[in-house]
Structure prediction request, 402 residues.
Amino acid sequence: MAWNQPGGDGRDPWNDRGGQQGPPDLDEVLRKLQARLGQLFGGRRSGGRRFGGGNGDEGGGGGGARGASAFGVGIVAVLAVLGWGAYGIYVVDPAEAGVVLRFGQYVRTTGPGPHWVPPFIESVEKVNVQVIRSQDIGFRTQGASATPVAHESLMLTQDENIIDIQFAVQYRVKEPAHFLFNVVDPEITLRQATESAVREIVGRSGMDFVITEGRDAVAAEAQVLIQEILDGYGSGLNVTSVNMQNAQPPAEVQEAFFDAIKAREDQERIINEANAYKADIVPKARGEAQAIVERAEAYRQRVVALAEGETSRFLQVLTEYRRAPDITRERLYLEAVESVMANSSKVLVDVQGGNNLMYLPLDRLLTPRPGESALGGGEGERQPQTGQATRSRDGLSGRSLE
Prediction:
């Protein structure tokens, strides 16, 4: 039954607080909240008694509430400031560098350690400047396998041959601000710079040089040229090493190329064997030649010495001949006869009562001996010993003289 209908009790349910539940009074809720805040921040309850009458009490209660509210707002403000300041603290790791931005514009670079920036005004980008990064050129590594990238690896050499070459570039960040803001994608820039530098170097070199002994030289030159290109772009990257992973002809001509390599290896082997034979035979030939030269020199010295001796003897004889021609002539005759008779067999016949008769075996003199002519014996021929007993045709005893 409605409260205003006949027969009702006439009570207003919205204003009745006795035993009925209704919506709370908003003013009362605010009053209770204000009182609790006053207690929290040390103020007095509103409505507290003060001297000066009822109006004064009400005024004093309102002033205390306002003071408590101001104090609470101050505390909240302090806490907010502390939270804002704590939010701006950041720590940079030892391997990192902090790039500070103020409203998106680069301001400074901070090193390792704790730092602070005003939040919502400045921000920090951390970049690892110690880690060594790697970039593959000519292939892509996917797990344990590598997939070739033909448009990066195929290059033209100076001798108009195509070579399949692959590189791995290691680098690190040396300028964090340049690394973040000067180029859109540093890795793509590095890949393109490496490809351009390697193509330039390979285009100035022959195929055999790049594949064989020029691998290290090409890699070293490529590292210098890549660094120059990156510095020109201001990329903030430092190339630490460039390694040539693979360098070979395209797959279509590899068999022919391997045959050429085998022929080149055979050539090197044969050349090495020839050099080894040369190293063995040349010293021996030089030793023999030196020995022949030394023997010839000794023969020359001996012949010269003999000639000088004969000349000296002839000059001495000539001097003596000029002093005493007859005596010298006789002595020369005796020496000549002695030299002739020394090479022939002689028999001395001892005759009693007479002089010794020398017998010359003409038949033996006319018969040539081995190594001598018919009129004289050879040099060095062995002669009968002096004093050997012989017997002549007439039976007389005698001695053989040399």
Remarks:
- The chain has ten helices and 15 strands.
- The mean pLDDT is 77.
- The first strand starts at residue 89 and ends at 92.
- The CA atoms of residues 99 and 177 lie 6 Å apart.
